[in-house]
Structure formats: C-alpha cells, structure tokens
Amino acid sequence: MEDNQVRELIRQWLGDGATLSEVQKRLKSECGVSMTYMDLRLLVLDIGAEIKDTPEPPKPKADPTAPQDAEAIAADDDGGQPEDSPPEGGAGVQLSVDQIVVPGAMVSGNVVFSDGERARWLIDQTGRFGLEPSTPGYRPTDDDLRSLQVALRAELQRLGYM
Fold first, then answer.
1. Could you tell me which of 9, 20, 26, 28 has the fewest CB atoms within 10 Å of its CB?
2. Among 136, 99, 98, residue whose Cα is nearest residue 118
C-alpha cells in the first residue's frame, strides 16, 4: 500500500472518531503496516489530522491561598529568564517549562507544589515521566500530583507537544 493511501486512511479513521490505538491496530490488521504509537502520533501531526479526544474532566479551580511566586519558578533553571506567562496548575501547583531542555529529555521544567516544595520534572525520549524533588525523599500529595498532571497536559498541548 502506498504512503499516500495510508495517510488518507489515517485521516479517514481519525475523522470517524478512532483513537490512535485503534488506528495503530487497524494499520497492522488491514494494511500490514506496523508502527509504534509515537511514530503514529508524529505522522498524525505531520499530516495535520485531528484526533477527536474524549472531553477532559473539568479542571480544579486554583486555590486563592496558594503562593503566587510563578516568576521565581520560571527563573529557577532557565538562566534567570522568566517565561512570558508561566501556567498555573490547580490547587496551588505552579508549573514552568524549560526553554533549554535538560540532556536526555524531550521536555523538562520545574514545579512548585501547594506546600512550597520544589521539584524538576521531565519527559524522556521514550515518553517516561520523571520527577526529582529538591528535598530528598519528598513525596507530593495525590491532589498535587493530579494538579501537576492537569497543568502539564494543558501546557504541553499549548506548546504543541500533544
């Protein structure tokens, strides 16, 4: 099957509401084309096809009592250059994305949790998430981790990673 035909099938399947996982399975079964999830994701971005995701759950409202030191987060590891407007996560979690990515990562940044603890986060070349707290042994609360996930997803979508 030709490359253009495969691209058109992918566009059609996604237009019909198929998920990337479903497209990946159909490519293998119907076309004999084996593709990793990441390769498929990049191809979808390349051809400009739209993925119809399920609607995101409502984001939690920001905690008005949470510290608002977002500029310090942005300046933390990017050479003192604060970002234009670092996004805020819900429940007091504040997130920034590095302008210069740490070695071995696709994307990286900093987070300040609701209790004021700081950590570095990254997503490596294989898509694995890593979190390195400033205080050894620190474990963020479940609420902070959920807020980090929501904020990180929103920021990565805004920046075009997803």
1. 28
2. 136
Q: How confident is the model at residue 49 (pLDDT cuts 50, 70, 90)?
A: confident
Judgement on whether residues 42 and 81 belong to the same structural domain of the protein: no
| Mean pLDDT score, 87-104 | 76
Residue 57 has pLDDT above 70, yes or no: no
Same domain, residue pair 149 and 87: yes
Q: Please indicate, yes or no, whether residues 43 and 89 belong to a single structural domain of this protein.
A: no
Residue 56 belongs to some domain of the structure:
no
Q: What is the domain count for the chain?
A: 2
Rg (CA), the chain: 19
Give the whole-angstrom CA distance, residue 117 versus residue 127: 25
pTM, two decimals, is 0.44
What are 122-145's pLDDT values in tens digits? 988 888 888 999 998 899 898 998
Domain range for 122 = 70-158
Confidence check: pLDDT of 64 > 80: no
Separation between Cα atoms, residue 138 and residue 144, nearest integer Å: 12
Is the residue at 82 inside a domain? Answer: yes
- The Cα–Cα gap between 110 and 98 comes to 8
